[in-house]
Backbone:
């Protein structure tokens, strides 16, 4: 998500290895999950898929990493992109991020074909969780690309009542009229094909990307910096961050904030711990 649905797709170089705990041997039969990153504390397991390519509902944030004829990765924006997906930029920048998410997608697609996706996700969570793990952030990068894939996560949430699962999504058509488990928190993310479902009132908790604190205040929205609002009842705002297309007014807004010593991006120094 700009970094944004995904609340925006924040990933961190520390989360680049197969298996998130340092020293763990790469496991190619398990999904890659990381324990925390620059935005989220270590009590949160994070699972990611390739940005943009797995986001059928994305519009204004849609960007993805492509490989050119020389084997070099570059960013490609979608037809309607206004603010660039931070998660896609990370895939261009870091080999391991790109490979890690491609690995996850391949395993998920294979598992969906043979009906074992819920087992794969559940087993991978048990493999990566620690004593501290209390939450699972689904998709800082990526989104629910099919109903069967969403069903698998719902089954996993039902199998793990001690964990809180949460996500942002623009695949809102999949959630319409759906009763989610009590430990599954979905925040509808503005900026996609299915915004009209938010406008129609189906998703009281939604997030909206804004340029600065004043814009959020004018909309009557609090700004979230640590995903704590994902567990509340109200809509909220996210500040645009990350690299933006040349000439973008969103990029200009980030530069103005930085020049004023205001929020410029996430890192471990400004990370806040969330208790839910
Ligand atoms: S919905 Fe997809 S393209 Fe949009 S910000 Fe999230 S990961 Fe990026």
Residues:
């Amino acid at each position: 998500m700009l970094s944004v649905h995904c609340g925006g797709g924040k990933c961190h170089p520390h989360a680049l290895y197969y298996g998130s705990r340092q020293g763990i041997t790469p496991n190619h039969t398990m999904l890659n999950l990381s324990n925390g990153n620059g935005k989220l504390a270590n009590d949160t397991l994070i699972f990611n898929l390739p940005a943009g390519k797995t986001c059928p509902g994305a519009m204004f944030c849609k960007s993805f990493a492509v490989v050119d004829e020389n084997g070099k990765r570059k960013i490609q924006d979608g037809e309607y992109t206004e603010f660039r997906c931070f998660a896609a930029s990370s895939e261009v920048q870091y080999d391991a991020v790109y490979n890690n998410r491609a690995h996850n997608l391949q395993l998920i697609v294979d598992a969906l074909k043979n009906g074992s996706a819920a087992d794969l996700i559940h087993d991978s969570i048990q493999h990566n969780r620690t004593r501290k793990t209390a939450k699972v952030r689904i998709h800082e990068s990526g989104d629910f690309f099919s109903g069967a894939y969403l069903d698998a996560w719902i089954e996993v949430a039902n199998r793990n009542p001690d964990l809180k699962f949460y996500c942002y999504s623009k695949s809102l058509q999949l959630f319409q009229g759906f009763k989610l488990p009590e430990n599954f928190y979905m925040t509808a993310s503005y900026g996609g094909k299915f915004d009209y479902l938010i406008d129609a009132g189906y998703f009281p908790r939604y997030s909206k990307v804004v340029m600065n604190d004043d814009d959020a205040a004018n909309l009557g929205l609090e700004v979230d910096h640590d995903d704590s609002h994902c567990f509340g009842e109200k809509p909220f705002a996210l500040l645009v961050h990350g690299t933006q297309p040349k000439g973008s007014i969103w990029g200009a807004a980030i530069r103005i904030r930085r020049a004023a010593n205001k929020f410029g991006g996430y890192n471990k120094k400004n990370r806040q711990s969330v208790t839910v």
Summary: The CA atoms of residues 223 and 237 lie 5 Å apart. Strands lie at 33-35, 44-47, 63-67, 73-77, 135-138, 164-169, 184-189, 206-210, 222-223, 236-239. The longest strand covers residues 164-169. Residues 15-194 form one domain.
